[in-house]
Amino acid sequence: MQDEAKMTDSTAYAYPLLIKQLLLTPFAQAQDQEIVYRGQLRMTYATLRERIGRLANGLSQLGVRHGSTVGVMDWDSHRYLECYFAVPMMGAVLQTVNVRLSPAEIAYTINHAGAEVLLVHTDFLPVVEAIKDKLETVRAFIWIDEPGSVAGAHSIPFSAEYEAMLAANSASYAFPDFDENTRATTFYTTGTTGLPKGVYFTHRQLVLHTITLMAALASPVSGQRFHRGDVYMPLTPMFHVHAWGMPYIATVLGVKQVYPGRYQPDRLARLVRDEGVTFSHCVGTILHMLLMCEEAKATDLSKWKIVIGGGALPQGLAQAAVDRGIDVFAGYGMSETCPVLSLAQLPPGAEALGADEQLRLRCKAGLPVPLVDLRVVDESMGDLAHDGKASGEIVARAPWLTQGYLNNPEASQQLWAGGYLHTQDIASIDATGNVQITDRLKDVIKSGGEWVSSLEIENLISQYEGVSEVAVIGIKDDKWGERPVALVVLEEGAAVTEEDIKQHVLSFSTSGKISKYAVPQIVKFVDEIGKTSVGKINKKSLREQFA
Amino acid sequence: MQDEAKMTDSTAYAYPLLIKQLLLTPFAQAQDQEIVYRGQLRMTYATLRERIGRLANGLSQLGVRHGSTVGVMDWDSHRYLECYFAVPMMGAVLQTVNVRLSPAEIAYTINHAGAEVLLVHTDFLPVVEAIKDKLETVRAFIWIDEPGSVAGAHSIPFSAEYEAMLAANSASYAFPDFDENTRATTFYTTGTTGLPKGVYFTHRQLVLHTITLMAALASPVSGQRFHRGDVYMPLTPMFHVHAWGMPYIATVLGVKQVYPGRYQPDRLARLVRDEGVTFSHCVGTILHMLLMCEEAKATDLSKWKIVIGGGALPQGLAQAAVDRGIDVFAGYGMSETCPVLSLAQLPPGAEALGADEQLRLRCKAGLPVPLVDLRVVDESMGDLAHDGKASGEIVARAPWLTQGYLNNPEASQQLWAGGYLHTQDIASIDATGNVQITDRLKDVIKSGGEWVSSLEIENLISQYEGVSEVAVIGIKDDKWGERPVALVVLEEGAAVTEEDIKQHVLSFSTSGKISKYAVPQIVKFVDEIGKTSVGKINKKSLREQFA
User: Fold this and answer.
1) Start and end of every AMP-binding enzyme C-terminal domain (chains A, B) (predicted)?
2) Which residues of A are catalytic?
3) Is residue A306 in some structural domain?
């Protein structure tokens, strides 16, 4: 029989999962490793350790306590990395403010999260100046005075400047133990409907996401994706789902880290070359932009591994990356899921599959990572066959999913209906466990009584010579219910006609690979395709525009 | 402010860490992957899934409930793997009985653990026959009737035979959710003093050990150590610390697994060759035995990776393995630590270090794995300098250390004195975080007022041409306190004298690399060196023998 008395959690052996433990091994094993900011500033992990202590002491003096919330408005930087650790390690909550929202939305999120201290980079002084009278909870502002940036006139009552504050404080701070279910971070989703919704994650969740994702990224048969010999640079903003948690993994691995500041394609390409970057992650549009820039054309990208998430990886884009020697592969998840649920992987013996099949595998949502219970279900939560065809909504459980939306019980209950988190993504699973997203629940096109996958049509069109970007939406049709419309951005000088595109899609319909309803009713050539604040195609706005 | 109401653990999003979750991804992604027993029996992961359900239903019928303990006496097999999952997933405790203990000790451990059901392989019928009247808690026996094994006369009242029981039961079993701090496994350490002591691990601990070790094994710069393309075979018995937790990792990875039954060197070598084994783990003596066997000499071992633990990896043995093309490296831990605390790793740029330094790095206890808080301390628990010289006891915290010894509060309190688990291993840490074990607290030799490392002398002697095995112990000396004595097994036909060995060690003393007290007083050539039940050199018994 079990001796339950021995199972209590209050004795010497108790070991809550806390973010500070992620630092144990890198600080002992990688003290001299570099962290680089914009190619201009270099520091070591030993310095990072000291600066985390100095930051905690500085925030403490400004009244930050267990349970306080600290907001950050900065570009991707070593400072942000310091906040990723120092703030939650104090027992406080880090709000990574989405700086691409409108000023009114930014004010809403800061108030809703209840941030008491706000760190502001010079570039965001105008925004904060505009909203400062609306901020209800902020008691203290800290200025991040970027060398080279010029601060215009403003009336923000700063309590401290970041570097001066660090210099004035001791590096020694005894980060306490506390309950692993303490909230560590909060940020706001950029849903296209209604007000932004706050998601939040605990220490336990972030530690489990970090270690499990580290295992999943390192162990595929097709080569290690992220290991101790890599050089890391995020290309997903650090305000967005902790840059997919990758800075935490990079730190545990003790690798060289490169933070690029504000994203400018030529600078990013230069950093990849000059700092020897080998591992990044971004949305497809950033990769597309980067491949197009002049600096990238003159750079050897063949040692670069990139995870693409935040939307589908179109095969056309994947091919362009593979052509440059990039090891590109998709990941799948969302803000609510911390974010990673699955990663594309090539199976043992992938060499024998041929280039086309390999490319298709790179573009799938891929294989759920360990501990993830990912199901594709029908409307009554019944499991669909794993035949690569039956499609339904993805629902999931995992040890790192948001417990709900902050102070929004109604939306939280909907999110967790039936004990599983509802992703609103439509997908199929095949016999090898590979997940293929076919659409967002809201973006799916119902034509002629069939579901047509907008992602599948985009995939086909993206591979047509001369096509640079494409978005497919459904518009109302009296006869068919809905019909697909393709919005296409052409490469400079490409001579492609509406009929070319239609014939291209039709050829796949004729061969039986897709439904005839998938052939776009209209192909419209446009100069650009509207994106959300995190670079996703904004289909809701496109539908309104072309209604 | 934190909304503490949202942090409770009783709602839809709650996700306790349970062993059953380790099966989520392999059962979806590796259904057709093989599990092989002795090269004779082959089954798939899909069959493993069914058999785990059948086993749980069978055990249920025999009265196994949440909190029951089930003991297993078997060689390394697919059946053992089934028990690793089915028993804890029911909420019961798996006791992996150490079959190398004496019958009286085996009876003691089964009674102490309170096993209610006992699974017994034919080979262990004589042992169980001898002790069955002493077993106080066992209510039901299950016979594992190995094809080809012959059961002699016995009077054990078996309730079932393993395969017949599985065949008679349904594959469908709804494994429940429960508290992640529920005990999952128990087994008994083979300490050389007093009665065996029980250590135990919870679901949470085994899941965290599995995922973290998986990340650590996959992410070193010097090539993936364990990944989806590997073929796994344990060479550490499955009764001993869950074969270091590796069968759990192998299953999460979804790799081909090979279980060898009873260890016979020629059969093991044949399995490596015929099944394409690429990843194993064992104590040094097993590797030594394997390299010596005829079958291994005719086998290409150059794709094999082996972790050596349960004692130091002598450089002589490591060199012999490297000469055969084996990627051999040390790991460090003990029964009380689940077991892994650290793994030897080559750093980025190791190629430039030269063969000797690489070999030394392979033999170190290496780098603590993520989440492990490993310290080397003096007698008042003060941290020693990370200078590669200062040596003291290793103490540790990690999310997977035993909470104590089962029903032994006194020993448990000693184990966890000061809030850290005391390993009784003496070590130093260098500036790169590398841990180097110099001795067991009990084995250290105090000579001429200095601490002499028995492991260091063994290391030097192991590299002398013609030496097959070596053990160094301290014997009492009126003048010096203690003096080292070396017991040496020579390779067949080697012409090595006592003076050769002494001169060899003396040369390192003359060059200042070791103390002059390290030169053995006596070198004694012996036919074999006594081992404990798990293959470690039994220094306590050697000391008694040569006192």
Assistant:
1) 456-536
2) 189, 336, 446, 451
3) yes
